[in-house]
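Record 1 of the preview.
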Amino acid sequence: MSINDNTVLARLRQAREPKAKKQCEAPKRTVPLKKATKPIKGRSEKMRGIIAALRPLYDAFLKDKEECAIKSPVCTGRAECVHHEEGRGIKVVLDQSKWKECCRACNGWVESKDAEAREKGHKKSRHANNS
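->
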């Protein structure tokens, strides 16, 4: 039994070529993924009424303010809403000295990145002794 030279050369070429790696399947998840951030609390019926009543004040506050004051990593640059530095308590919401003009992206960022926002002074506790 003789071996053909072409057959040997073909086998040598095939041996020299890199073999294709097998694609393995990703393991199936048995546990659902955890959410990275906590969800933002919705507004109560009472608070929605207060915010609706404040809409004219918000519009007047934002009238001459065009730039976002927070400037987070997700900032869009244009002031579109009012951020309340000390939360949404009724007395705090009415105090314009605790308002900041911001874009909606920054307002969401402050709520989701609590520790970082507090470090930068964008979020303060209304219960802390500020005297």
